[in-house]
Amino acid sequence: MAIRSDAGTDRIVAVHFLTRTFVWLLGASGIAWGAIFLPLFWHQIPLDRMAAEILQGHRFKRQALLVEAERNAAAERTSVCNPTELHNAVILDLSILNESLAAADQALVTSDSGTLYEASRRALACAPSDSFAWLVLFWLAVGQHGFEPHDAAYLRQSYAFGPNEEWIALWRTRIAIALLPRLPADLSNLALGEFVKLVETGRLYRETAAIFGSAPPAVQSQIIDYLKTANETARQIFARTLYDNGLDVDIPGTKIPGLRPWER
């Protein structure tokens, strides 16, 4: 009995020790996690907020963007792979480049393009499924040397990893429709199909009408052909939006609109 009792006690002591050790390790790992990740979390809040506002169309002064970019770069040098942070850094660097493009400062455009390229590469090294980063690489490549066949791989990856992300799809469609005659057949079909999906969201009629209006007649004909697959309500509202924008286009399955606002 004494032996069994001792053995039982030993087992109880052992289990108790392991439980206390586990709890201590859990607490220690919690402290370590907090020491590593909480500074990143608190750092990330301003970047998250700024990135969200940029996507909503808010423009920041270049200096404010550069300050946040520098603060983010310092955090990146001491952080682990953080897909959200790196994704937002791409958005921030793209906004900086857009400011340089608006200012027509070629030296800054060249410098900022390089920074954006590296940010996109870092984002993809951390999260290869970042559809937006793939699209940025495609946009940079086309902007640098025009469309070349090997650039299609970037766009193909963007479609593959982000087929239903509306804010990415809208920018991607603008780019792809502008390049449609030069795209391989698979990407051309994806671009036209995505255009129809955007029309069918019921929210982006003005944006898709603007994309359609800027396309050459041959591309417009391709878009119209694809619109046959769109639901009737979406086609009708899209046709009306085009008509209100001064475009007389025969969209299959739609009625002839009434007078334009300025003709009433």
Structure description:
This protein has 264 residues and is mainly α. It folds into two domains: 1-127, no CATH class; 169-264. It has helices at residues 2-55, 62-76, 83-103, 106-126, 131-145, 152-161, 166-178, 185-200, 205-214, 217-226, 232-244. α3 (83-103) packs antiparallel against α4 (106-126) and α7 runs parallel beside α9 (205-214). The radius of gyration is 27 Å and the shape is elongated. The N and C termini lie far apart (104 Å).
Helix content: over 70%
Structural class, please?
Answer: mainly alpha
Helix count, DSSP H or I runs of 4 or more residues: 11
Cα(first) to Cα(last) distance is: 104 Å
Task: Give a quick account of the main beta sheet: strands, pairing sense, barrel closure.
Answer: none
Mean pLDDT: 79
**Assembly state here?**
single chain
Please trace the helix and strand order, writing H or E for each element.
Answer: HHHHHHHHHHH
- Strand residue percentage: under 5%
Poorly predicted residue ranges: 1-45
Q: Per the principal axes of the C-alpha atoms, what is the gross shape? A: elongated
As a whole number of angstroms, the C-alpha radius of gyration is 27 Å
How many domain units?
Answer: 2
How many strands appear in the DSSP assignment?
A: 0
